[in-house]
Specification:
With 95 residues, the protein is mainly beta. It has one domain. It is 15% helix and 40% strand. It is built from two helices and six strands. A hairpin with a 5-residue loop joins strand 1 and strand 2. The radius of gyration is 16 Å and the shape is flat. The termini are far apart. InterPro entries: Papain-like_cys_pep_sf.
Length: 95
């Protein structure tokens, strides 16, 4: 289904689970906004580029591989589709 809001704001994020046994699992998710955890430097400043780099770095997922039963698998997030307008929600961990 297409709408003008969907066309302007919908991103598609892909998470790739890359098991050492060569089994790759791809998970696609529709997103309206990107939630980024904020970290502060020594002067209480926020480096948006650094926050984005940390968000998209490889991390370890605690899931079981369907092929080899390994329980920790490297994972990485990418954008499959970027919208014309991307909403970035900065989260400092406090309510």
């Amino acid at each position: 289904m297409s709408s003008s809001v969907n066309d302007m704001f919908r991103a598609v994020q892909i998470t790739i689970l890359d098991c050492p046994c060569s089994l790759n699992q791809k998970i696609f998710e529709d997103k309206i906004s990107l939630n980024i955890n904020v970290t502060f430097d020594d002067n209480s400043n926020v480096d948006l580029l650094g926050c984005l780099e940390r968000h998209f770095q490889t991390w370890t997922a605690n899931v079981r591989c369907e092929s080899c039963s390994q329980t920790t698998i490297p994972a990485k997030i990418y954008f499959w589709r970027l919208p014309p307008i991307l909403i970035i929600h900065l989260d400092d961990g406090h309510l």
